[in-house]
Design a protein that fits this description.
The chain has helices at about 5-15, 40-55, 65-70, 75-85. By secondary structure, the protein is mainly α. The N and C termini lie far apart (about 25 Å).
Length: about 90
């Protein structure tokens, strides 16, 4: 597991109060919403705010494919990495 993915898993757990889950429990390719981790739209907003605060990135809800970027830890890590290098 790369460092950014581990950080993101920890951020998801801490920012959403998922006390009974550890980073190792979250598969990097598992869906974060719906059938996967079971997050909802409120969780998406909280996670977006936590990402902006932690990494200093801008998340515009109008961004094309935003839902796709938040689909899994692997995709979220790629999105954050791309935003940080801009």
């Amino acid at each position: 597991m790369n460092q950014l993915e581990l950080e993101l898993k920890t951020l998801v757990i801490e920012s959403l109060g998922l006390e009974d889950i550890s980073p190792e429990d979250i598969d990097r390719d598992a869906h974060l919403f719906g059938d996967g981790l079971g997050l909802d739209s409120v969780d998406a907003l909280e996670l977006g705010l936590a990402l902006q605060k932690r990494y200093g990135i801008t998340i515009d809800p109008e961004t094309r494919n935003m839902r796709e970027h938040f689909a899994s830890i692997a995709k979220l890590a790629a999105f954050v990495a791309a935003q940080r290098h801009d």
